[in-house]
Fold this sequence. Notes:
CATH superfamily of the largest domain: Response regulator
Structural class: alpha/beta
Shape: elongated
Number of domains: 2
Amino acid sequence: xxxxxxxxxxxxxxAVAATLSFAGCSAPAADTKASTAGLDSGFGKRxxxxxxxxxxxxxxxxxxxxxxxxxxxxxxxxxxNLNFTHQTAEGDSAAMVNLVQTAIATKPAxxxxxxxxxxxxxxxxxxxxxxxxxxxxxxxxxxxxxxDCVSGFVGQDFYTVGTIVAQKxxxxxxxxxxxKVEITAEEPDQPYALQRGGGVYDVLKKAGVxxxxxxxxLRTGGDDAPALxxxxxxxxxxxxxxxxxxxxxxxxRNLPAALKAANNTTTKIIGFDTAPAIIQALKDGVDxxxxxxxxxxxxxxxxxxxxxSLDFGFSAANINSGGNGLITKDNVANIEAKDLQxxxx
Length: 345
């Protein structure tokens, strides 16, 4: 399972001077207006069309991880002097198609979008490309079928990090051969879950752990209330499960509460992403570790690549957003500063 399926991985370091000051950058999150500012080099002003649409699959208003992505995109848009419009599909695949098609009609310069539904969104991305709009992916990469319709990608190597999470679990000694481990995701059939979960499954299965196959992974959906209910119901019915491995932020942030609701004090967690409930679970020892895919970086770098393409014609690259180092009880204090909420957790 390869994450970067279109181009070789490119490392991109973008340095932006901290002393930059841009007028008109305090607009609401949904619509950040461009000002007349910019650098002498032309960065932030060379291209006339500075309209950019930034689409999220889940609503950042109720999802800490997607809020981190949006915040990164907003900050980069301010630095790049874009007319930045954010819209969310609210977890609805058809809604994403409609949103992108509507945006295409306005003839923006940039469209930035994830590909949670994979092939289902290739056609609309290619419609944008044919209309002369630069499309850059983040969080979940476009499938190979997208070809040149998508210029670049910023996100985590899901499969590799899945193997890192599983190896951490084995190295901890908290599971042994025969122990039952369940993988859970918002949508177990989506690419991110298949790749993350695939990495976890392959390593644990090889070690003889009783990790359940993909057809038995627990689906929670992307909304908190039904996710909490699904997790609680599963834990009550399966008190013998040794570890839950949430490969998405929704099940992860709801598992600590689900364990309490199920009166389960033996099952532990190891997973992906960050949120206040996950941070607390790490500190409480309920959560062994989490892999932070650094959502802020994904939003920021995706938009920044768009600005560089827009103003200077640079080709967008495939960028690994990092997060290979796991967050544990021992190092969680490094990211939990109050002023980092919404950026790191």
